From TrEMBL:
A Pfam family recorded for this sequence: LRR_8
Spans traversing the lipid bilayer: 202-224
InterPro entries: Leu-rich_rpt, Leu-rich_rpt_typical-subtyp, LRR_dom_sf, LRR_TM_domain-containing
Signal peptide: 1-19
Source organism: Mesocricetus auratus (Golden hamster)
The keyword Signal is assigned to this record: yes
Chain residue ranges for the region called Disordered: 234-254
Record's protein name: Leucine-rich repeat-containing protein 3C
Amino acid sequence: MLLLVPRLLPLLLVIGTGGSVSNPHTPPQRCYIAEEAGEQTFRCSQAGLSAVPSGIPNNTRKLYLDANQLASVPAGAFQHLPVLEELDLSHNVLVHLSGAAFQGLEGTLRLLDLSANQLASVPVAAFMGLQIQVNLSANPWRCDCALQEVLRQVRLAPGSGTGIVCGPGARPDLVGQEFLLLTREEELCGTGRGGTRRSTDVALLVTMGGWLMLVAAYLIHYVWQNRDETRRPLKRAPVQRVRSEDSSTLSTVV
């Protein structure tokens, strides 16, 4: 009888759970696996998720986690997906990205959608080494140096640039402005209000001022030197005396 207990235990578990056994690798409810355009796709749109789910097949090429309640993406959240090419995290409530959020995707990820979240700033480290096209529109950006550095690392999705607008956390004079237009006039990674642009202007003014001072010093020296020359008495040319012999000869001729 005791020998039958190990064999009956799984059956009792199935009966006790209504005919199904939970599996940690089973996709969450309202998530499903599909094949789209010949590529393995995992869709978890509008699934009520508050964290990146487990059970995503490691051969997934397209992953849709849009329209959920994700507030952050931890380090290495997708590193078990070695062939992932497209990642949709739009329409969540993301406020934080780890600097290693996309670790392990450097050689594969090419499309990333972070639009319509609550991101005010993102770490540059999160995008280092990625060759991606990213959508950053519809977020309340702080419009700081970090965002400017990110835009130097990535390519923006077509038509998404105008949607990158400075939010309430930005400098008061920047709120509501398009970030791309702003960066054409102001460098945000410098010091002070005007950033590097103002620092460059100051350096240029200092250099020009130095050259003007050198020119003025030279002119002053030149004027004083000429003034001293005019004050010196003129030297009279020496009068050559006629020898007596020449004088007597001249008298004889006359």
